[in-house]
Amino acid sequence: MVVLLQQSNNLSTGLSSVSDPGAAALGRAGHTAAAVVLGLILVLGFLGNFLVLMVFSRFPGLVTPVNVLLINISASDMLVCIFGTPLSFAASVRGRWLTGSYGCRWYGFSNAFFGIVSLVSLSLLSLERYSAVLGRTHLDSDPSQYRRAKLAVAASWLYSLVWTLPPLLGWSSYGPEGPGTICSVQWHQRSTAARSYISCLFIFCLLLPLLLMFFCYGRILMAVRAVARQVTRINRSSAERREGRVLLMVVSMVTGYLLCWMPYGVVAMLASFGQPGVVSPAASLIPSLLAKTSTVLNPVIYVLLNNQFSRCLLYMIRCSSEAPPTRVHHTLPSRRGAWRHVPHPPTEEQNTVHAMFTSRDQQVQQPALLQVAQYAT
To answer: Where is the chain membrane-spanning (predicted)?
Structure first.
């Protein structure tokens, strides 16, 4: 009890000692600019993730095992928009932290907790796609894959809890950072415990997920390229276009991850291990804002750019009572696709599979290659 009271007193002292110089260094114009950016992130992030969750609830046929992880990402980003961003937005409007030491601790914990859930889910999503492509599993037809996806979701929340509870229990701490209008793990503390926590957080919650994404998406790109080389000349141009689309998707996902989270991790390491004052309060605000933009970028990169999802979104906005018409293809060359309404529309990836591997010269099934095309996008 004494330790908790001492930590609370230290945090209150930290709020008064850190926020004032930072606020003075940032100035009124800087706080206003930060408030505008946070307001845009709040509105766009909430609306984007809300639409994603609404579409998945309206069209259950879209909820494949891979998309279970996308739902988890949108849910965690939505929770950041609800429980975290409004506090920093209000603080930036007023130029100071408004909810006291306990509010600061809650803000730091909730942002770290939901943020790590999203990060881990992104890496697990790449692993799931890699397993589907190179492990030759059938995610849409095997019920066990739904159980595995749900276990992955549960693992992401448990893993995040393991790494975000320690600052509440004495291994480092949550407190004000930058200009005093946001709260996070205390980067500037130079104790052995604080530095060890920052190092572990950087390695296990940022670097390892990034390396896993590089490995999985790199292997997927190699597999898709192999598919493009093996199709017949008739379908070569179409396969190359799809290969380019997969490449664009992978580059967008990895770039979004690096842009949003790597500056935050690098600045944290510099503040903890670099020379005192190497990261100014105003400069430390930029990586924090970039990290929050992930709530806006994730639904766009991972969901809204999918044509099948976009068609469902348009039908939902138009208040249609039926699922959108979907082009149904068949692998036999003598059968043509037909437009029809289906209660659970097949995904765009399934249509892509048939388009890539249906030709007059190709009469045999290619299960491994079908898996590559189906789950790479």
So the answer is: 33-56, 68-89, 109-130, 151-174, 194-217, 246-273, 285-305
Q: State the chain's maximal CA–CA distance in angstroms.
A: 79
Task: Write the Ramachandran bin of 9: left for phi over 0, alpha for psi from -120 to 50, otherwise beta.
Answer: alpha
As a whole number, mean pLDDT of residues 109-115 equals 94
Considering only residues 149 and 144, tell me which one the structure prediction assigns the higher pLDDT: 149
Of 8-12, 96-100, 209-213, 357-361, the range with the lowest mean pLDDT is 357-361
Please name the CATH architecture into which domain 2-322 falls: Up-down Bundle (1.20)
Q: What is the reported pLDDT for 135?
A: 66
Q: Which residues pair with 362 in a beta bridge?
A: 359
Cα–Cα distance, 133 to 23 (Å, whole number): 51
340 and 326 Cβ atoms separated by less than 8 Å: yes
Question: pTM score, two decimals?
Answer: 0.78
The Cβ of residue 90 has, within 10 Å, a number of other Cβ atoms equal to: 15
User: Of the candidates 291, 258, 296, which has an alpha carbon nearest to the alpha carbon of residue 88?
Assistant: 291
Could you tell me the sign of the dihedral formed by the alpha carbons of 8, 183, 164, 82, in that order? Answer: positive
| Domain definitions of the chain by residue range | 2-322
pLDDT of residue 72: 94
**Tokens coding 346:** 């097949």
Rounded to the nearest integer, the mean pLDDT of the chain is 76
How far does CA 75 lie from the centroid of its chain? 10
- Work out the number of other CB atoms within 10 angstroms of the CB of residue 259: 14
- CA–CA dist 347, 43 (Å, integer): 29
Judge whether 239 and 231 are in contact, CB under 8 Å. yes
pLDDT tens readout for residues 291-331: 999 999 988 887 766 777 878 888 888 875 454 544 433 33
Token digits of residue 277: 């004052």
Task: Please give the average per-residue pLDDT across 19-29, as a whole number.
Answer: 62
Task: Specify the higher pLDDT residue, 309 or 365.
Answer: 309
Characterize the bridge pairing of strands 326-328 and 174-177: unpaired
What is the phi/psi pair of residue 184, to 5°?
-160, -170
The DSSP secondary structure of 284-302, one letter per residue, reads HHHHHHHHHTHHHHHHIII
DSSP-H helix ranges across the chain:
2-58, 65-83, 85-94, 100-134, 143-164, 166-169, 192-202, 208-230, 236-273, 281-292, 294-299, 307-317, 348-357, 367-375
